[in-house]
Amino acid sequence: MEMKIGKIPEMILKRSVLKQKKHRRAEVQVGLGSGLDASFIKVGKDETMVLSTNPVIASFCDTPEKAVHIAMNNIVVKGAKPIGILPTILLPPDSKEEDLRSLMQGLEKACDELDIEIIGGHTEVAVAINQPVLSITGVGKIKDMYRLDEGLKPSQELVMTQWAGWEGAVILAKDNRMLLSERYATDFLDNIEEETKNISVREAAKIGMEHGVKAMHDVTSGGIFGALWEIASAYHVGFSVDLKKIPIRQETVEISEFFELNPYLLTSRGCLLFVTEHGNELVSKLSIAGIHAAVIGRITANQDKVVINDDETRFLEPPKEDELSKAYK
To answer: Average pLDDT, whole number, for the chain?
Structure first.
């Protein structure tokens, strides 16, 4: 089967990746799996290491600082404390030493902000690529008593932070300024480009842990619909979500319409999805911290993945390529 740009479809992932791996080590408590995003390795009586790896293509990630935050998001949403990163840096043949130095300075700046360390890695000039690629492995640790692996139950509520598709809208607005200026006013585009959106979910995850959430999942490639599918797949549950309760900005709607994209399948780093017993209380705590959030649905007893829009009900399909990639074909 021919594969398209973006995340590997779940069917291919299960058939050609997950079915090929074997579990051999008792220390590996959570390993490779659909929607999991991080691995857990037992290292002590009551302590576990958490690891996650993320490849970042330069065209979709304008700073190395952003790449570090992307890697750390998968650590903090497991309730773990970040320790460090191991970056693999692949550069095209025309790269200069100054490019590498600048990239490393950006990585170190982000590590300083997060109080973590570069603890290893690899750097190489590769003939096979035509733009820089970062693959960052994040490392963290967690006390076993705080692990979020108890499973999910019907009636638990889904809470989402920030706005669906906003990261994708910002990228599209910056990369297509001249094209978009034919339809939209300068002020409209300036407002998007001047938006300094922090994609780190560290503060929101901390509030979630203090609140006692049952699960967290950062919303990345595939957007909010992709994240909903992934968390349901990881915990073997279903959900019912009200489309009109999903926070989305008007700028995202208009940019998506211009490129004929679905904003709910558009990359949304900086958004975090929670499962909790008390959704409104969590929304209130997040709001006090200046983090926009809303209750968008709940976990259901069956494994149906349902989105409701007024009187219309639809069933989500497994996530395919992120909508952002369609705009660059």
So the answer is: 86
